Amino acid sequence: QVQVVESGGGSVQAGGSLRLSCVVSGSIKCRPVMSWWRQGPRNERELVSQIDFYGSTHYADFVKRRFSMSRDNTKDAVALQMNNLQQEDTAMYYCKAKCTEQETYWGQGTQVTVSS
Description:
By secondary structure, this protein is mainly beta. The chain is 0% helix and 53% strand. The chain is built from no helices and eleven strands. Strands 2, 4, 5, 6, 9, 10 and 11 form a seven-stranded mixed beta sheet that branches. The termini are far apart.
């Protein structure tokens, strides 16, 4: 059974920073592409960033130069460093581990709230 567990969310004032972490445990049988997604109260779930096994990253335009995603393959973990947070970044943030379209694992999410 594969589990994906996020941590690190919380409340912060605009301009502040948070660091989200995600750990994959269990018998995952691939080198997954890891990604962070977010879903605000009135929005669909959207891709924030992703990283492959070799460290190649992709970011959504709305977070470029503010967020940075990293990966530690020895710990099956990824992190998302979020700087200069804005109110529009308020959302539930989800971590996803993807082997194939049919083998994808989601975490339960961690809430990020940014106040003015």
